[in-house]
Amino acid sequence: MSTLTLLSRRRFLMLAGSGLAAAALASCAPKQPATTTAPTAAPVESEATQAPDAEPTKAEAGQPSDAVVEVNYYFLAWGPMNDVELVQDAMSEITQDKIGCTVKLVPMDSSAFNERLKLDLAAGENIDLMYTCNWANDFYANVRNGVLVALDDLLPEYAPGLWASIKPEVWDAARVNGKLYGAINQQIWATINGFDIRKDVVEALSFDVSTLDGLDTYDPFFQAVKDNMDGMYPTGWFNPNESPTWWTGMWGLDGVGPMTYMRWDDEETKLAFPWEYPEFEQAIEIARRWYTSEFLPLEPTSGEDFVAQMKAGMYACVPINVAKPGRESEDKAKYGFDFLNIPIQAYSQPFVTTGSVVPTMNGLVRTCQNQEKAIRLLELWNTDVEAYNLICKGIKGKHWVWVDKERKIIGFPEGITPENSPYNPNTDWMFGNQFNAYYVDEAQAEANTWEKTRELNETSGTSKAMGFAFVQDPVANEVAQVTAADKEIGEPLRQGRLDPAENLPKYIEQMKAAGAEKVFAEVQKQFDEWKASR
Questions:
Q1: How far lies 104's CA from each of 136, 199, 246, 465, in Å?
Q2: Tens digit of pLDDT for each residue in 58-72?
Q3: Potential cystine with 503: which of 91, 341, 362, 498 (Cβ 3.0-4.6 Å)?
Q4: If we measure between CA atoms, which residue out of 147, 173, 179 comes closest to residue 363?
Q5: Nearest Cα to 201, choosing from 225, 223, 237, 230?
């Protein structure tokens, strides 16, 4: 396979989820500077709801067997994969001993992944395991079309380690009509937003960042940047569709459909339009103040432009919608500065939603010839550190070397880079439990990133809407109209480029005229049916 275009997961998620829900929720997946984080805030708007009534018989799926069989795995790769056969052979040495199967890895780049899988699945090709989620190889469509096998019995029996490692309420995110169809990969699930602030700017201003809490507390810092850092904006537009003040997760809201939200911990699970929450008015007023104070440029920029401008020193802060542990080291690699990661948790504790979990899962396909072996392979990638890092990073000595074995830090061999490596899929989060990954730099290890992320996931709340996924088909035309109306007035309103006093009433009127109330009614109907079925 030729060298693939290197593309960050969060960038791809942002592009894939650029509809109304993702824009309104500003996010996993799952977003921000176009190259940073994922849309993790909006639940998927899927066409699929109906699971197949019957599971395949053992004859259809293949009897479990002690004989050595081949298990194939179709996945998305964002880096060079020329040595994929060497890696699958090395993997097969492990799996033959531990599972009694060989492995065939079938990587595809982003331009081919969705369409090729659609064709292969429609043709009945023998596919065992495949990556599936809400932004690529549509999980809900696969369930609706009878492509995936329910895992309720298979995971506890053949992947007990994976099964036990995830809370029961989180498994609900991958359920459709009460059945579990996705093997969830562990990564950052918690909704947590904030800013990465340049450390050199903080030091130059002698500013006490411990005073930064809610968004209102940022004005003194932003003013100090404007007054003392010549030619530098306090922050910027990391994406032309986003607002750094209206990340709904920050405000404790779970987006369950277009223009439809719920407080994540609301026992009554009441749904409402965004403008019905006082937090919305607070967010757009802060955005307006920042804009009129010239803390932001006059016009949003593209994600690519923001990256270039940030590298050039144009901004003091990177707005981030996933202020996860270790984020500052990622942004240092991207922008070239040392950062302080400042999460905003003044309005809500972190919480987990359907939309923050389903962006990365693996599914068992009905054409699988040996379900037991396939599920045991998922167990291996989620519990065996050597096997997991083999598929993530390749072969020790050829594709990576130890930098500090005791601290589990690796690097590239001499002369090898991410771009010219013969094996660098750049999608660790796709294969299994990312907390088993080796660290790739000193800062990650120093911050104990994986353990802190695991703790964050485990201590976060779980949305009362966990497991609900809206199907937009019945109101697809209205969703399109509402999306267009929101972009025209809602987007600049959330960004502070329009005066709320004058334009908020206009916005509400325009959204209702576009069909927002009909969309809301459909979301409410589906939500009530979902609750009744639980």
A1: 21, 46, 44, 38
A2: 434 444 445 679 999
A3: 498
A4: 147
A5: 225
